[in-house]
Amino acid sequence: MLVQLFILSIFFVPQLKACVATIPPEEVYITTTEAISPTTTKAISEPVEETTEATTEMTTEVTTAAGAGCGMCDIYAIAPEMPDPDTDFDTSPRDPVDGCQQTHVQCTRDDPLFCDSVVMTAVNADGTHDVSVNSAQTFVDSTLLCGDDGLYSFNGIMGITQLICTFTKCE
Asked: Where would one find the signal peptide in this protein (predicted)?
């Protein structure tokens, strides 16, 4: 009995899998129209006019222009006052972003003292904001981007008018 069941399953199971009904997707509809309709064209012969007008092609290049002032920021106009002779303010240009000037700024101590905290803040019309990116016991740095208004910005802090470097508890 088992042998007969086995033989039947060998022959009929593959045939049952082949007969599984498929359901077409909802977007498919059976139609009776032809896929390509026959078209007829009628040749019309008309005289061809010759012209002697010269044509000139004009190509214009569209570029996104950087703002008028975004390459004209003066980092020294917002430089922090460094009353301690053992502190320095250094700047270096970075690669422009979308054609706008970018400047790396850093305040450092040149003496053997270590500070508990070194912070760079920026003043704008909204108040004073921390713009420190990297800070250690002897330095702080940041990277500022020149805006269309000719003033620097940092991560959404626009219109920076002054930088301040604060060295706290240096021993």
From this structure: 1-18
| Cα angle value 156/157/160 (rounded, 5°) | 145
HEC sequence for 102-113: EEEEEEEECCCC
Are the C-beta atoms of 57 and 50 separated by less than 8 Å? no
E strands within 1-138? 87-97, 100-109, 115-124, 127-130, 134-135
* Beta-sheet pairing, 162-170 with 87-97: unpaired
Residue 114 burial class via C-beta count within 10 angstroms: exposed 0-12, middle 13-18, buried 19 and up: middle
Query: Rounded to two decimals, what is the model's pTM?
Result: 0.60
Residue 98's nearest CA partner among 131, 67, 142 is: 67
How do the pLDDT tens digits run along the chain, 171 residues long?
666 666 656 766 566 555 555 565 565 555 555 555 444 444 445 555 555 555 445 433 333 345 567 888 999 999 999 989 999 999 999 999 999 999 999 999 999 999 999 999 999 999 999 999 999 999 999 999 999 999 999 999 999 999 999 999 999
- The DSSP secondary structure of 114-167, one letter per residue, reads -EEEEEEEEEETTEEEE--SEE-SSEEEEEEEE-TTS-EEETTEEEE-EEEEEE
